Amino acid sequence: MHPAVSIIFFTAASGTGYGLLALLAAGALAGHLAASPGFGLCAFGLGLGLVGAGLLSSLGHLGHPERAWRALTQWRSSWLSREGVAAIATFVPALVFAGYWVLGGSISAAAAVLTIVGAVVTTICTAMIYASLKPVHAWRNPWTVPIYLVLGFYAGALWLALLVFAFDLQMPGVSLLVAMLGLAGSALKRGYWAFLDRGRADSTPETATGLGTIGKVRMLDPPHTESNYLQKEMGFRVARKHSARLRLLVLVAGFGVPILLSLLANVSGTGPATFMSLLAAVLGSTGVVVERWLFFAEARHTVTLYYGASHA
Amino acid sequence: MTSLPASPGAKKLGLVIDLDICVGCHACAVNCKEWNAGGHSAPLTDLDPYGKDVDGVWFNRVHSFEAGDHDCGRTVHFPRSCLHCETPDCVTVCPTGASYKRAEDGIVLVNPDTCIGCKLCSWACPYGAREFDETDGVMKKCTLCIDRIYNETMEEVDRVPACVSTCPVSARHFGDLGDPESDVSRLVAARQGYDLMPELGYKPVNKYLPPRMPKRQAAPALMPSEEVAAKGFLAWLDRMLSR
Known about the structure:
The structure holds two protein chains of two kinds. Chain A is an all-alpha fold. Chain A has ten helices and one strand. In chain A, 68% of the residues lie in helices and 2% in strands. By secondary structure, chain B is α+β, with helices and mostly antiparallel strands. Chain B has one domain (13-242): 2-Layer Sandwich (Alpha-Beta Plaits). A three-stranded mixed β-sheet of chain B has the order 10-1-11. Chain B has a two-stranded antiparallel sheet with strand order 2-3. Chain B starts with 12 loop residues before the first strand and ends with a helix. Chain B has helices spanning 27-36, 89-92, 120-124, 146-149, 162-166, 183-191, 232-242, and strands at 13-18, 46-47, 55-56, 60-67, 74-81, 99-101, 108-110, 130-133, 138-141, 172-176, 207-209. Chain B is globular. Classes of the chains: A mainly alpha, B alpha+beta.
């Protein structure tokens, strides 16, 4: 599948934003985070900013962005519509939660709980847009939703850790949280990639054409000489060698190094800790973006079976 | 509303495509383009039509495949267009309600006035039936020539999709596949018409008729493979003799 920059940024940024908002709410509810206005302003600014920027970016690839409001109407059947509704609905408790924190210096438990629920539901809806597509074997599987959730929380935790160290707050569990989410995320990605390398779609050139009763099906002539929309949108292919290197990059630079840096930051002074957690957050988020690029680039669509692909 | 019709009608208009007869002349694709460039979904934009990087929207594409080997092999020309599925995900994924399936005849259409051009429906279609129009910013697809089949200003004989009317060898048939007594349903029954990618559960309305195999090959006459997967002593022997 074609890895559109606007969609990659949307899923990565809004996932991170929701992860950060949910962790802020969870940390406050658990009593690990006090409602200090300066920290709150930065944390909510970053979280809501990432969510907002992601949502705006998702409009970037629309043919008619001015009609985007219509996408809120079909929540009965469409995960994309549900995502839009959930995303907008989540702004309400998140803004109330942020208002109490930044302006009032207090924690609204109800708003915090609803923020967590909204963040998790929206991220699940985002993942389900892809996980519900039957023609894409790499997406329609049980890995997609947990990966979106855990990676959103992981990236959110990295930025939360940076803010905690930068404001010199006492939240001793934050490095451990980063490490645990990072380990869970990398384990899920390894499992997913093993699944991807092992299995193939049920659909084949034989089922796509129904000519399997005659024998093996090969493309003889394409219907046209130049690439069409289908091939550009659905036929994107990434060299295997390329993807193997990028997977390694995600595991080492996206998970391994940030986890180590976070743990090191936990035992360092404020200055070095802030620097290390900044580096960890930037590396981890870059890893999530590369991971999301691979999520699209490695996915094969059944329509390619009509254009000479031997499997999907 | 992009939910599927709660009570779909009995009528299921669609096409039956005879892969035994199709000669791969692309006339159906060309006439489809010609009619629809001025029809319901007009224009069917072409980008850089006389330049190096030609691109454009078509509702019908004719692929050519080889199936099988040796004596059993066949070249099969394979027209591919919207199958107007009974349970099409391209409709249900639509966030705006622009994509819909008509209860009265099962035709799947896009409303170009409410489509936001998010392209998700084209991802949800396993068959590649939908093509995005860059110029209009909306998704386009086969309408089953809705502006011909109900067009009372045309002669009755012409009230069929453009691809059907133009096929020089009558490899394409149009009719009500929901009526078991219709000509198309009888044809499907007689010739074991089948669905494409039935494993995905979209329940296509359009059916394909398989190529007839020559009589002398009624029984599969594949050449036995010369490659024998030898094991143990035979594998050793094979290696020794291969030196």
